[in-house]
Amino acid sequence: MDLMASLTASDDDYSGGFSNIGQICNPILSRVDDATGNEATKKKIKCEALVLRAYMEYIMVNKFAKAYNAATASTDPGIAYLTEDADISQMQPKLSVQEVYDHILADVNEAIEIDGLPDVAINKLRLSKPCAFAVKALALMSMQKQDEAESAAKQALAINGTVLNYSTVLGTATGYILGGTYTVLAKPEHYYDEDYYVPTPDYIYLENVTPEAQARFEKGNMFLKYMGTMNMMYDYAMDYTGTNLGLPGYVTFYDFDSYWNRYGLNAPQMYFIVAEAEIDRGDFNAAMDALDKVRACRIDPSVYAPLKGTVTTKGEAIKHLKQTVHGDCICTIYNFINRKRWNQLADYKETYTKTINGTVYTLAPDSPMWIFPFPKNVTAVNTNMTQNYK
Asked: What pLDDT digit, counting tens, does each position of 158-168 carry?
């Protein structure tokens, strides 16, 4: 970890998060109440700034600090929470994980109370009312407050519970060598109703999925089945990772046409929160019903079958939850965040393994590698930002 820290000159999540807060959220929040103009517009902009700040802090505390643990959160070192009244000429203090989450909830609750956000934003780069409930639900779930998280998730879903059916966005790709044609996921360059917020729309190109990660997908998952790959582009005449990396059996995605919501907020995340809360409550039918809302749109219709009514044990329910979340959150930040959070729960924690050239690597629930190092361009100028993995 010390070597990793020494090699981390900068970090896009850290710089991007605090740039959004320092250059967008806080300037608005410091001046909007005194501004003249339409009151509804003022309320909307203020709420957007509050929710965006909370969301940026949520992403960063999950990357750079320990997962929330109620027994230790008040003393676990977290990150700075930059508010609009902070003296930015001074080194900002590092708050505890508990304090960071308290600020996150305070910001989103204020936005919800002001009630200035529209049900649907002018575009997916802007914040809407479902975003406020979604950030609240995510934060509460990280704090293991499942009932409150489920309530917030259901409030988001009541406004927008849409899930994109992948079978409606299938297209055709042509191989480069033999000219073969293949069915592929082809999400055009625009946004979909299931998305609440898309801060960094991106394509998925040259990202490798290990055999272990492939095995975690549910059979018939249309992302894994139909996503364009380098092997497909070479008409399956060669194993791309086997030839180029010496790692046979990996899947390397190749897609310059579709745009994916890798960092944002969407309706499927809310269904997963509902499902997990219902699992912990022991209502497996309600839990599987929530998962089925997503699965019906992600599993190939030729093999899809509802889970509702088929699950009778908590272990089986958790297996289906993890499998569905994994498939839907691949190539996003959320598989990392969810697994890190699950490490705090006895029924969910898991040691992850992968094999590379005959060597088995493991990542245990208590590994310090779940905490990313602060980059050197931060620690060099703010001595309060000591590393949290130590």
From this structure: 999 999 999 99
